[in-house]
Write a structure and sequence with these properties.
It comes from Helicoverpa armigera (Cotton bollworm). The protein has about 260 residues and is of the alpha+beta class. It has three domains: about 80 residues; about 100 residues, L1 transposable element, RRM domain (Alpha-Beta Plaits), CATH 3.30.70; about 55 residues, no CATH class. The protein is built from five helices and seven strands. It starts with a helix and ends with a helix.
């Protein structure tokens, strides 16, 4: 028979063993629960991560698509810009051709401005005004020298007489003589009294007939000359010229860019 101490010792050992097993089981249960929860969270996190990866793949695919389309649009824009430049060059060439044709058509034409229109005025009356004006300028003009004469409305209430001479030489002579006449008679420049028109004397202006493009260019050139102390601004054969002063080189103004370059 075991002694009491042996029995107690054995009982103590038994109680100690029970307590150790109970704690071990509780710890195992906690570890199991922790593991299950962790596994659940990991599974949820992995599912979310997989979803994010899938979304990123879709985003990447979309970005690639947008980039591809952007490159296509950029290429189309570059192509359109190149075509636009080519079209602009072609249009400019056509405009230059039309301008040259119109300038050639105006080579023998002048415009007489500020002469009042008489009631019932006829082409014969216009031709008479032209010959009388030429006589004041000491040009022996005959009817055959006048190819055509007609009025055009330049401004409201004011019409201009356009004269087309039979040749360019006559036109040049008239333009030259009017400049000489006005320079010589600064206090009594050409006016309606010189051609014996009734009423108060009105100044008569005689200029080359210009194309619409040349008219605008001449207007801009005159304003530039006024603002920048250029002494001379004139037209010759439908072209516009500027000159700073006596002895300076004349400048051909072909377009507005030429005027802008002079401002620099």
């Amino acid at each position: 028979m075991p002694s009491r101490h042996e029995a107690e010792a054995r009982g103590t050992v038994t109680r100690h063993t029970w307590k150790h097993d109970d704690g071990y089981n509780s710890l195992s249960e906690l570890l199991r629960l922790y593991t299950e929860r962790t596994d659940s969270k990991l599974e949820s996190l992995q599912a979310s991560l997989s979803e994010i990866i899938g979304q990123n793949a879709e985003i990447k695919k979309t970005i690639c698509f947008i980039t591809e389309k952007y490159d296509e649009i950029l290429l189309k824009m570059e192509t359109l810009e190149a075509e636009r430049k080519e079209d602009r060059i072609y249009i400019n060439q056509l405009e230059d051709r039309v301008e040259n044709l119109e300038r050639m058509a105006n080579h023998s034409k002048i415009e007489i401005r500020n002469i009042p229109k008489a009631p019932g005025e006829t082409k014969e009356d216009l031709c008479k005004i032209v010959t009388e004006t030429a006589a004041v300028l000491e040009i022996p003009l005959q009817k055959p020298d006048i190819k055509d004469a007609f009025r055009v409305n330049k401004k409201e209430g004011i019409s201009t007489i356009v004269v087309d001479f039979a040749n360019t030489r006559t036109k040049d002579d008239v333009v030259k003589r009017i400049r000489q006449f006005n320079k010589k008679n600064k206090e009594n420049k050409l006016n309606t009294a010189h051609i014996k028109m009734s009423g108060p004397a009105k100044p008569i202006y005689i200029v080359e007939s210009l194309t619409l493009r040349a008219q605008r260019l001449f207007y801009l050139a005159r304003n530039f000359a006024k603002d920048n102390a250029y002494k001379f601004c004139w037209t010759s054969y439908g072209r516009v010229f500027l000159k700073k002063g006596e002895g300076d080189k004349q400048i051909l103004i072909k377009d507005e860019a030429d005027i802008n370059n002079l401002r620099k």
